[in-house]
Amino acid sequence: MAELSPGTHSEFKDLLAERKRRLWAELRDEIFRSTGESLANQYDIPQDVGDSSILDMLSDAGLAVADIRREELTQLEEAQRRLEEGTYGKCERCGRPIGAQRLNLVPFTRYCVSCQTDVEGPAKGPGTKL
């Protein structure tokens, strides 16, 4: 898979573009929905300090979700760049081909499963000392 066939190249190009379009739509909807609801409700209901704190916490959680989506969009754009450069589908760490099944599940991945495991390190259970 170091070199994608023209048909496969086109399939992954479409997959990346569709995933990016869907993520942008979700992000846009989330921002407009939360902003619209926030502005509509913020001044209508008197709030005490506790209510205000809860609203701030919910707002922060919404921003965290938006940041996760923004990061995924950045990764999708990088994957599109790699696709155009001809390096898409090749592990950036070991140079081996990344399986099509993995690319379909995580189209922006930069590593094969083995290298991804090495990069992330072993999982530590709760209460495990570092």
Automatic annotation (TrEMBL):
Residues 86-120 form the Zinc finger DksA/TraR C4-type domain. Keywords: Metal-binding, Zinc, Zinc-finger. InterPro entries: DnaK_N (IPR037187), Znf_DskA_TraR (IPR000962), Znf_DskA_TraR_CS (IPR020458). It holds the Pfam family zf-dskA_traR. The keyword Zinc-finger applies. GO terms for molecular function: zinc ion binding. A zinc finger (dksA C4-type) spans 91-115. Coiled coil: none annotated. SUPFAM superfamilies: DnaK suppressor protein DksA, alpha-hairpin domain (SSF109635), Glucocorticoid receptor-like (DNA-binding domain) (SSF57716). PROSITE patterns: ZF_DKSA_1, ZF_DKSA_2. This is TraR/DksA family transcriptional regulator.
